[in-house]
UniProtKB/TrEMBL annotation:
It is found in: Cell envelope. Residues 38-257 form the Solute-binding protein family 3/N-terminal domain. It comes from the Bacteria. It comes from Pseudoneobacillus rhizosphaerae. PROSITE patterns: PROKAR_LIPOPROTEIN, SBP_BACTERIAL_3. One of its GO terms (cellular component) is membrane. The keyword Ribosomal protein does not apply. Belongs to the bacterial solute-binding protein 3 family. Residues 1-25 form the signal peptide. Its main location: other. This is Arginine-binding extracellular protein ArtP. Residues 38-256 form the Ionotropic glutamate receptor C-terminal domain. Keywords: Lipoprotein, Palmitate, Signal.
Length: 257
């Protein structure tokens, strides 16, 4: 029984290998778009301007443009898979996706479980509140409820701050819901990446202040540990820095900063 299973797995993988080899040949000989190898990107499309759904329901943003450029350069067809942010590392570890771009900060802790490219963007943190709020400093969050997105560096950061200031942390698994919670006064403050916060402040007429406690690591592309894609992607990122393409994308999506 076991042997049969092993054998069929072997046949299956051989089949896959042949299939991959096939499309690679097509690609190098200028194969059609449909023949291209697929690169699956995991993301959490709740994080404009990095990734969010437009009114037509399509996922767009800085990370999507960046991933498309990288895929194009390396001869892949990009496929985007939307999932919860706190499931992304697991998706990489179980090879459900080939890479993750999700405004993900390359922390040391995550680096133990996945591999990161060189950083492509830096963003600080902000606390955002309703416009008329009297919470305008970090000290003022004492006794209040602060919402964070589950599995983010802000969740970690909030726990750290809580060691010295007493407040309640409310982890929420979707960044857009986090803002809804703020608008409906179920939380007093939302703690979120600065570039994302700025968008909401303008769009929803909110207020906010910079987090004085952190200097978070840059956002980077994440891969399963030991992935041979990193070197190639780093090369593309370097090229994009040199040819101005990265700056162009920043101007397109992050220019409010
Ligand atoms: N930069 C933060 C982190 O890495 C938050 C990222 C959240 N991204 C998202 N697509 N919701 O933890």
């Amino acid at each position: 029984m076991k042997k049969t299973k092993l054998l069929s797995t072997l046949i299956l993988s051989l089949g896959l290998m042949t299939a991959c080899g096939q499309s690679q040949t097509d690609e190098t000989t200028g194969g059609k778009e449909s023949d291209k190898k697929v690169l699956t990107m995991g993301t959490s499309a709740d994080f404009a301007p990095f990734e969010s759904r437009n009114p037509a329901g399509e996922i767009e943003g800085f990370d999507i443009d960046l991933a498309n450029y990288i895929a194009e350069e390396l001869g892949y067809k990009l496929e985007v898979e939307d999932m919860k942010f706190d499931g992304l590392i697991g998706a990489l570890q179980t090879d459900r996706v080939d890479m993750v771009l999700a405004g993900m900060s390359a922390t040391e802790k995550r680096d133990k479980n996945v591999d990161f490219s060189t950083p492509y963007n830096h963003s600080g943190e902000m606390f955002i509140t309703l416009k008329d709020s009297d919470i305008t400093t970090l000290e003022a969050i004492k006794g209040k409820t602060v919402g964070v997105q589950l599995g983010t560096i802000q969740e970690e950061g909030a726990k750290k701050i809580k060691e010295t200031i007493d407040f309640e942390i409310k982890p929420i698994d979707n960044a857009a819901t986090l803002i809804q919670e703020l608008l409906t006064k179920r939380i007093d403050v939302a703690y979120i990446d600065k570039s994302v916060a700025k968008g909401y402040i303008t769009e929803q007429n909110l207020a906010g202040f910079d987090d004085p406690t952190t200097s978070s690591p840059g956002m980077a592309v994440a891969f399963p540990e030991g992935s041979d894609m990193i070197e190639k992607v780093n090369k593309v990122l370097k090229e994009m820095e040199e040819n101005g393409k990265l700056e162009e994308l920043k101007e397109k999506w992050l220019s409010e900063e």
